[in-house]
Amino acid sequence: METLSTLPSLSVESSPVMKIITRSQHNISRQSISENALKVLYRLNKQGYEAYLVGGCVRDLLLGKTPKDFDIATNATPEQVQKSFRNCRLVGRRFRLAHIMFGKEIIEVATFRGEHADLNDNASETQLDTNASKRSQAGMLLRDNVYGTIEQDAVRRDFTINSLYYSVKDFSIRDYCNGVDDLKNGVIRLIGDPKTRYQEDPVRMLRAIRFAAKLDMTIDAQSAAPIKNLAPLLKNIPSARLFDESLKLLQTGYGYQTYLLLRKYGLFSPLFPTISRLLSSPEQHTKLHLSHAEQMIEQTLKNTDYRIRNNQRINPAFLFAAMLWYPLSEQTQSLILESGLTYHDAFDLAMHDILGEQCSTISIPKRLTAVMCDIWRLQLRLNKRSLKRVKAVFEHPKFRAGYDLLELRASIEKGELLELATWWDEYQHSEQSNREQMITQVISAEKKHNNKYRKSKNTRARSTNKSSQ
């Protein structure tokens, strides 16, 4: 594995050498391919175009996995694809794509990408058209609608394992970048110069991490080398796009392993700067010295991975609420010390501050931030156990999510919080008559505690008075 990871990256400018893997040499069967994807492939081929399954679906089929979706690459332009399919719509400006709709299933069709012309070369007007191709000063591709051949498209893709083309004409796989070998050897390798390719699209760094975690593979040395230095480039990515990427990273069943890799390569801080202030350095990251924030993140992600593996429902609002709980708690305490606000006022202001800072990097939609605030406020209300308040909290639409966060906090902090979580767990599973009795017992215990505290306080006051006389 280590010797493979030192192989030179394939140059985007070099002419790739195509390998054809025949039907007898691979395990992909048409029975494993979406019927709708096959319809698109057959029609485009019948009309005289080249069309192939490409990317992650081919990779997953070779690995014996079920692809989440099926993408197609063709030499037909998006407009030509649209003419061929009435159920087609064109989307995107940065990358012009054709989406062919089959009910809930969408088959994404992309035209072969071409090489980007150097402005110093004698490029044609079409190549120099800023509507077709455009870069930022940092080298990021703002528009990439220069079309080309399948060979050019192969080296324009991000990783070798995603540059595989499956043909329904002869059921063969075309491999231009040694992707099959890298797949067999468990190597994530970027196509072209890693620094340039990451500058073109910094999200490729996140994709490298995601594939390494999901496929249990190793990022090769050259592809990994620039990541830490280029991590700040993620600031140039729209926060809405980073929200989508964060869900792919943390809510696809490999969140915990992905989190460890994000920390290792310095990519967690640009995504979650609010949380990162409470985390130890990767070098100090050990099981024996985890902060409450780190314990919360790790346990939440492990729980999320477990739920996904068992086909249980997950909610991104809960994930973000749990991950941001300890930054929220720290900000609340800071505001109390700085301004003398009451705890509730400081808590509300801290929620606004934490969400504002986090949403500047990852644009969490309002429909989710509203749920997050409900979950957070329930942490204060769960501690109030009068008859009227308990019933109101228990009937709250987000009670279960609020209780789940309380349970997570209790597993970390122990003590009185653990007692509170145990009480609420028992309350949920008790009969109605027992519930009222539980509340009465709590109120009675609190009165005894308060009376004992007042007596103790009065005794200390009398002692002080006598000594002063």
Detailed description of the structure:
The chain is of the alpha+beta class. It contains 23 helices and twelve strands. The protein has an eight-stranded mixed beta sheet with strand order 1-10-9-2-3-6-5-4. The protein has a two-stranded antiparallel ribbon with strand order 7-8. Strands 11-12 form a two-stranded parallel sheet. It starts with 18 loop residues before the first strand and ends with a helix. 33% of the residues are buried.
Helix vs. strand class = alpha+beta
Give the C-alpha Rg.
28 Å
Number of strands: 12
Question: What is the straight-line distance between the termini?
Answer: 83 Å
Mean pLDDT: 87
Number of continuous helical runs: 23
Largest sheet: 8 strands, mixed
What is the approximate shape? elongated
Question: What spatial order of strands do you see in the largest sheet?
Answer: 1-10-9-2-3-6-5-4
Helix content: 40-55%
Quote the beta fraction: 5-15%
- Unreliable sequence segments: 1-9, 118-131
Provide a brief overview of the structure.
The protein is α+β, with helices and mostly antiparallel strands. Helices cover 53% and strands 10% of the residues.
